[in-house]
Amino acid sequence: GRTQKPSVFLFSASSDGESVGNCPFCQRLFMILMLKGTKFTLTTVDMKRAPHLLKDVAPGAQPPFLLYNKELKTDTNKIEEFLEEALASPEYPKLCCRYKESNNAGEDVFLKFSAVIKNPNPAFNERLWKKFYSTLEKLNTYLETPLPYELDQNPDVSESLRRFLDGDTLTLADCNLLPKLHVVKVVCQEYCDYDISGCELRGLTRYLENAATQDEFRYTCPPDSEILFAYKSVAKYQKTKEEHGRKSLKTPGNCR
Q1: Which residues fall within 8 angstroms of residue 216, CB to CB, at 6 or more apart?
Q2: Which candidate, 181, 178, 170, 177, places its Cα nearest to that of 97?
Q3: Catalytic activity, per the record (predicted)?
Q4: Can you tell me whether residue 11 is helix, strand or coil?
């Protein structure tokens, strides 16, 4: 039989203390715990109103953080490593990637998106949008390129049909990237009239569609309203397609 189950509490940020807030790092750990299949308690915390609730648990810490058998963990990357080690196979599924390149796929998308959405100077928009779009193209290329295991199965395959970054099951790399891509998708669609999963980026579109079928992703996504609220103050810089500088992109903003 199984050994005694660990006691796991995940503390996540929230704007109202109830719904899961706009925090890709919180969602990343939420997804990992769901994929591991261990029981855990999710506590959402409005840091503006209730930091006193946490002063005994994790003084000075910002969500997300984890209590594992009463031991406090506060660094997201270290929590991920710890969970992969503590909740190990064969009892729990292994979530690390087969191919190290999968861990780095899409790593600069969120950074370039942030540069676009927070840019107050229209003169820089075109250049920033091009840089952002090139990160989407790079991620799309990775998703469309067959991995070694696919070539082993069929040496003639020219385009990958795998469901996720590293294969047909979600891994730690997906738990890291998908929450960020979700923020990018929601904000771009609402404030920039731009759909990152539309148009000719077939690999990226397939990836997001497959993710949307997975409970571990769907059930951990914050409400769109939480994401849009978090970006409302900076999104005022994004007005028309011309001001975005997106008119020069291969993919028009209204492409669906």
Answers
A1: 31, 34, 35, 170
A2: 170
A3: chloride(in) = chloride(out)
A4: strand
72 forms bridges with which residues in the sheet? Answer: 67
Class of CATH domain 100-232: mainly alpha
Instruction: Give residue-wise pLDDT tens across range 110-133.
Output: 999 999 999 999 899 999 999 999
- What stretch(es) of the chain map to CATH 1.20.1050.10? 100-232
Helix, strand, or coil (residue 101): helix
pLDDT in tens, 201-256: 999 999 999 999 999 999 999 999 999 999 998 887 775 444 444 544 444 333 32
Q: Are 135 and 211 in contact (CB under 8 A)?
A: no
CB 112 within 8 A of CB 131: yes
Asked if 167 contacts 210 with a C-beta cutoff of 8 angstroms, the reply is: no
Q: Is the dihedral of CA 218, 223, 229, 230 positive or negative?
A: negative
CATH 3.40.30.10 residue spans of the chain? 8-86
Asked whether 67 and 9 are in contact (CB, 8 A), the reply is: yes
Q: Looking only at Cα atoms, what is the longest distance across the chain?
A: 64
State the residue for tokens 């969500």: 63
Q: Which fold has domain 8-86?
A: Glutaredoxin (3.40.30)
